[in-house]
Amino acid sequence: MSFGTYPTESIYDEIFDTSGQPREICTSFVRRLESIPDGELEQRQRAADLIMRDMGITFAVYGHEAGTEKVWPCDLVPRIIDGEEWAQVEQGLKQRITALNLFIDDIYNDQKIIKDGIIPEQLIRSSSTFQKACVGFRPPAGVWCHISGIDLVRNHDGRIYVLEDNLRCPSGVSYVLENREVMKRTFPHVFEGMAVAPIEGYPERLLEALLSCAPPHAPEPTAVVLSPGIYNSAYFEHTFLAQQMGVELVQPTDLIVSDGYVHMRTTRGLKRVDVIYRRIDDEFLDPACFRSDSCLGVEDLMQVYFEGRVTLANAPGTGVADDKAVYAFVPEIISYYLGEDPILNNVPTYVCSNDKERDYVIGHLDELVVKPTNESGGYGILMGPQSTKAERDRYAEEIRANPRNYIAQPMLKLSTVPTLIGGKLQPRHVDLRPFVLCGEDVFVLPGGLTRVALREGSMVVNSSQGGGSKDTWVLRKTNGKHDPASAIPSSQSQEQGSPSC
């Protein structure tokens, strides 16, 4: 398979440097890929697509004219990350989640960060994800964000930035695991001799993190995954994680509050539940506490939660920390709670509720990316340099009408990875969502979900907006050499035990 005239001059490519030579960590992989006969990569890609379809690895896109259920798209050329660079990223993610967890706890209790003038009180009070019902509460084990997905991007200067924090119900980790499984089935020999950090132990680590935060009254706690049901866009992930952890997948109608505890209905009667990994948004969890019209909630669930008799993961109220306006203050949050400089930098961000910054944004809409503070999935974004004047004028009106709802950032030129498009390897822009678990300790899954914008020139990588994905390889080294102990030699290889922090 030839890379032909693969362009690298004007972009940062994860595989090739600007001279067109493979980066040191990627040299062996590139040579192996180039040894593949013409047409074989396409055949293996078609085989991978069929495996995804036959295994039912899907996602949903609401309102799509061609139907909602889509086969998960996985391109067979992986993203490769140097293990030494990853070690720094891992430390930065641990630092960030530790600080954000302290921030959430403070916001709902002492509010020292507000009293000390680090963050404006109105910014927190006006956040649509701030839950007044959680004021004065501390969850079991003091953990608010048990599972986090932190979106990272590499700019054309080669530096990695945090693009946004996802702390409510972050999705995508099931596709990380399935991408790796499909790669091992369809392309096993590319792993031979490559020290790819294993990821298969994630479900065990997730269950350990959840159970470690169980209420103290439960010496042998029972955990469940709570899903809104089959029509949710991430339902495949809900079923996958429940199966992999060996716990029950339940819907709201399967749960009931009785005698001060949460129970699930079973064929043998009621069984107490101690930990709920919930994949339902805050406002729908309990009609007695949040939205009274919710058909997805469990009546009085929050009362049991506030009394410390059940753990909800992630804790309700964590969304206040992934508000994109609050994101702009994360460097100050890290410094305030940890006394450290951030290891991972934010993208420079303009908060439109600030008069001076709002005026700058409106005057430079053709240069900036404008985002709603609490949307996700790539919805509601204005890509200023690619927009029309009419679109910019409309956003200017919306920003003036509701400035708290918008932030703006410079448009980064995301790094690229070779991607099979029309039978040729072409550069396509990518981001990365690593997953972080917080229980007795903080664990970062090596790599994460690499999302790729399949349309030429597009920077929008979300699957709901036509993006795809790639397997992500963290190549580990020992004394400057590949560590053969961590290599995956064939499609039959399985990880032995759980990965360590």
TrEMBL record:
Record-annotated Circularly permuted ATP-grasp type domain positions: 78-453
Coiled-coil portions: none
Matches recorded under Pfam families: CP_ATPgrasp_2 (PF14403)
Highest taxon above the source species: Bacteria
SUPFAM superfamilies: Glutathione synthetase ATP-binding domain-like
Spans annotated as Disordered: 461-501
Record's compositionally biased regions (Low complexity): 489-501
Signal peptide: none
InterPro entries named among the record's database cross-references: ATP-dep_Glu-Cys_Ligase-2, CP_ATPgrasp_2, UCP005522
PANTHER family: BLR5612 PROTEIN (PTHR34595), SLL1039 PROTEIN (PTHR34595:SF7)
UniProt name for this protein: Circularly permuted ATP-grasp type 2 domain-containing protein
